[in-house]
Design brief:
7-stranded mixed sheet, alpha/beta, two-stranded antiparallel sheet, globular, Rossmann fold, 9 strands, binds S-adenosyl-L-homocysteine
């Protein structure tokens, strides 16, 4: 009988406590007040233990709406930014999604949770390795690549959606090439401050661009190191 009780909750993660879950509910409520209306995105954020993607020193802050340092001088994006970019992608189950800048892997988890087939690229080796570990531990199965996001992932193209999670000085042409007709690319463009840009590829191959306000990201770097 005791065993039955244990097997009744196979997905419980001992590192994700009721306290964390409570803080997540508050974060979700806050994101609603900031204009996130996509229920699937809010549910994904409610489900994913963001604190497990962060270094121990910042666990207490995991459910504040803030960006925080991760390894290699990078940051885990602010929850609002993750929610905002994801909402703009309009993910449908089974969408092939390319993410540039795996970082902590948190945004990757959100995309997986929404039922996307995720391909994600990171240029910092420690982050590539660390994110692989936590994503696997939580049961997500993205395809992860160590490399340069400017090149995209031609072997697996075209993609339904592409998301860039670092500030790009310009729109990398290869990413637009690797987008399906009807596909959406969400990318923050700019040097110190970035404008969130949505690029839709029309069925005739032309693109339509829409701007969605200002954000701050770590830079999308062009050369290794
Ligand atoms: N989505 C991440 C955000 C991390 S910050 C998260 O939720 O944690 C942006 C990431 O982009 C950093 O990890 C940085 O190393 C990576 N990056 C920067 N330039 C890159 C490039 N040219 N190719 C791939 N990744 C890059």
């Amino acid at each position: 009988m005791g065993l039955t009780a244990i097997f009744a909750y196979p997905m419980q993660n001992p590192n994700d406590t009721f306290r964390h879950k409570g803080m997540r509910k508050e974060l979700v409520a806050f994101l609603r007040t900031k204009g996130i209306i996509d229920e699937a995105v809010l549910t994904a954020i409610d489900n994913i233990p963001r604190h497990l993607f962060m270094d121990g020193a910042f666990l207490e802050f995991a459910y504040q709406d803030k960006a925080f340092p991760i390894a290699a001088g990078q940051t885990i994006s602010q929850p609002f930014t993750v929610a905002f970019q994801t909402q703009l992608l309009h993910i449908k189950k089974g969408d092939k999604v390319l993410e540039i800048g795996t970082g902590s892997g948190y945004q990757t988890a959100v995309l997986c949770e929404l039922g996307a087939k995720v391909f994600t690229i990171e240029r910092q080796r420690p982050l590539f390795l660390k994110s692989q570990q936590i994503l696997k531990e939580l049961g997500y199965m993205p395809k992860q690549f160590y490399g340069d996001g400017y090149i995209g992932q031609p072997n697996f193209a075209p993609f339904d959606k592409i998301i860039v999670t670092a500030g790009a000085p310009f729109i990398p042409p290869k990413l637009v090439e690797q987008l399906k007709p009807g596909g959406i690319l969400i990318i923050p463009v700019g040097e110190n401050v970035q404008t969130m840009i949505e690029i839709r590829k029309n069925t005739d191959g032309t693109t339509t661009q829409t701007e969605y306000g200002e954000f701050r990201f770590v830079p999308l770097l062009e050369d290794k190191q």
